[in-house]
Amino acid sequence: MAHSIVIFGASGDLTSRKLIPALYSLFCKGRLPEDTIVVGVARSEFSHDEWRRELREKAKKFLRDSYRDETWNDFAKRVFYSPGDLTEREDMLRLADFLKKTEPSADCTRLYYLATMPQLYEPAISQLGACGMVDRHSSRHRIVIEKPIGTDLASAKRLNQAAQKVFSEDQIYRIDHYLGKESVQNMLVLRFANSIFEPLWNRNYVDHVQITVAEEVPVGSRAGYYDKSGVLRDMFQNHLLQLLMITAMETPSRYEADLVRDEKVKVLRALRPMTGEDFAERTVRGQYEGYLKEKDVPAGSQTATFAALKLYVDNWRWNNVPFYLRSGKAMSCRTTQIVIQFREPPHMLFTASKKLIRPQANRLVMQIQPAEGIHLEFQTKVPDAGMSLRSSDLDYSFDREYHGEMPDAYQRLLLDALLGDASLFARSDEVELAWTAIDPIIAAWQSPSAPPVYSYQVGNWGPDYSSEWMERQGRQWYDVCPVLH
Ligand code: BG6
């Protein structure tokens, strides 16, 4: 089957940094379906060769050792450029004509990829519809929409409705690149291809869950965007809630897009809404020192660069088990990890110098990035030291077991979109329910009774208050930077 991938926003960063390198890597691995062409669309006037050259320079930079001149030249033969403004009917009709002439066959699968500024998503979609470039009854036509899907529930709904006017829901692929990460998919495997975890994965054995996405980098050159967004829109509404869904969901009956997404959506539906005092008690917000001096940050900005939330999934499995989610910029190190903190043993037999040893609870840490692996902590005896105990672990690292280079999330996502598998993409109800959970927190943080914005030093695990907040609840953050092998 022949395929064409039409990238709107061809001159942007996402195209050169992520999409083209991912397609080239798939091509090198022989995974890009044989008759596939890539057509870039943007306003700049490039010839096909000029655009290819431009992409080659960037590909060399981003792909480093995996770039090869010979394979690039083969790959580049499938890459084309069609200049045009996607808001202009004439330009879109010219593109339609170009596709007709260039596509390998008339029944080619066509994937439109919106890699433009989000303000252009709706105009692009409606032009595609108006120019007759979409058959909503054909599974051959699909569209990929990049994050952000709206900036709140109302705008997400507007975008979803605009997209559903032209495409049917199963033609729409909403990207959350966290779902393309190997170690996130491995969580599905860990949970649903092993039987030993399932009996423990509930309120009877789990004290609480921590999901941390810490970034070492500050906002840098993106402050103009970031200041309007803040950490809740930038990270929680999408990536952190995706990780929560995968951790908390029930087992789907089959690995099929809608069955997987049905189970994920049920988690969002079960989230306990926050009201009144909850915003002060169950949320922490912070801003790193020096954020106000970043270029394009308005004076006195209250935008949170760090947040911690305590969420509950009100269902039988998770009744009253807190899910602590936190994320921030300019933190101690880059790490994404999910910690399943098990309950303490109910009764302790062992003593040290006649004092009862405090029971140590087991912990399962799933490291998503940059150290990709799984780590289980349990108690063992210190040899030749009476009945003294120590914490030991079983450690699995992707790196030790797998010697290839870990693929970038976009490789998997682009291939799935091309082949029509939407399991790792967000459905409209998923996105809207995620905003339903996040919008009230954003509103509460903008209200006169908003909780304070705690400042934190660059290179910390967020504000000190975040640790005090956990300690008051008798818990501790797992503040551990991953060991990279
Ligand atoms: C993006 C956010 O969605 O995810 C960025 O807009 C953030 O602010 C990035 O840095 C993190 O992605 P990753 O894959 O580097 O963890």
Question: What is this entry, summarized?
Answer:
The chain has 485 residues and is α/β, with parallel strands linked by helices. It has 14 helices and 17 strands.
Task: Describe the protein.
The protein is an alpha/beta fold and 485 residues long. It contains 14 helices and 17 strands. The protein has helices spanning 13-28, 48-63, 69-76, 89-102, 121-130, 153-166, 182-192, 223-248, 257-269, 278-281, 398-401, 409-419, 428-446, 464-472, and strands at 3-8, 36-42, 79-83, 109-114, 141-145, 172-174, 206-214, 283-288, 306-312, 322-328, 335-342, 351-352, 355-356, 363-369, 373-381, 389-397, 453-456. Strands 16-15-14-11-7-10-9-8-17 form a nine-stranded mixed beta sheet, with helices on both faces. Strands 3-2-1-4-5-6 form a six-stranded parallel beta sheet. Helix 1 crosses helix 2 (48-63), helix 5 (121-130) packs parallel to helix 6 (153-166) and helix 8 (223-248) crosses helix 9 (257-269). The longest helix has 26 residues, at 223-248. The chain is globular. Residues 147, 177, 215, 234 line the site of 6-O-phosphono-beta-D-glucopyranose.
Would you spell out the secondary-structure blueprint of this structure?
Blueprint: E1 3-8, H1 13-28, E2 36-42, H2 48-63, H3 69-76, E3 79-83, H4 89-102, E4 109-114, H5 121-130, E5 141-145, H6 153-166, E6 172-174, H7 182-192, E7 206-214, H8 223-248, H9 257-269, H10 278-281, E8 283-288, E9 306-312, E10 322-328, E11 335-342, E12 351-352, E13 355-356, E14 363-369, E15 373-381, E16 389-397, H11 398-401, H12 409-419, H13 428-446, E17 453-456, H14 464-472
Parallel strand pairs: 1-2, 1-4, 2-3, 4-5, 5-6, 7-10, 8-17
Antiparallel strand pairs: 7-11, 8-9, 9-10, 11-14, 12-13, 14-15, 15-16
Helix pairs in contact: 1-2, 1-12, 5-6, 6-13, 8-9, 8-13, 9-13
The protein binds 6-O-phosphono-beta-D-glucopyranose.
